[in-house]
Amino acid sequence: MPLKQNNIHMTKPDHKIIFHAYPQSPVAEKIRVAFGIKQLSWHSVEIPRLPPKPLLTTLTGGYRRTPVMQIGADIYCDSFCITEELEARFLSPSIYPTADAGLARCLSRWTDGALFDLAVKIVLGAAGDSLPEDFAEDRGRLYLGGDNWAENLKKANTQLPHLVAQLRVYLSWLDQMLADGRKFLLCNEASAFDAQIYHVVWFIRGRFNGGEALLAEFPNVTRWEKNTETLGHGTSTSLSAEDAIQIAGATSPKTKEHVADNDPQGLKLGMKIKVGPDVESGEQFVTGTVRYADAQRIAINRICDQTNSDVCVHFPRTGYRIEV
Known about the structure:
The chain is α/β, with parallel strands linked by helices and 324 residues long.
């Protein structure tokens, strides 16, 4: 049975999903696949690929990564947090169809971390000097080591054969696993793990000039990739960023107020904190007051500066730093 989720929200499942992303984002593609698995309807707000992103950060309080999900005045940052919220709100079909939900969640820390970072190094390293300078610096700071991004980008270029060889190992393992004819990675039902792996394969095929040849080596992975692609993205309609902000301003957060016992950082309701990615990337932390905290999630209250109204911004605890 899928792992039971804490019900930290109190909104109805039919409250509209607003998805802030851009089409080329591989991390957004992971969530679009989750929409497809659950056959959800959602509103699409296209955001810029590079900062500044003022119509997004007015909602998030400074968080600039892609994607962000909004439901009313509740704002969900990070794809892991978004996936977990989708599962909690829309129970069927589950994205955890087997008894291994905890393992799938643990593996997501690898797919979203080391595996995705490897794919980024391959894509950026292969592009080399052809990358636009502003894009190279922005993504370099996010994924290639902060102030050392330029040096690390050159290293990725010179070490490209080694990096591809590392990715090839993982693809070979997946291909062996899929050799039994299963439709998806865990079983014959699609799961969060399919979305997690698919977004990396989608990125490599579409953005690495050697991607087609690399993936052609692995027929079982290619078959699985096509199965995952046929899941689609649910049903989307366009929405302007301005309208999304007005929707947030016209309602209030629905997340319940609660802090679980034994919080290692001593968090209390109403405590002022800052939250941001646990990497040295120079990103702005989001400041607010604690509304909800447990072992898996932190949610903070803040005021949206454009609407002067309350919003609640959600983050996963894993991969994020809380500063008191």
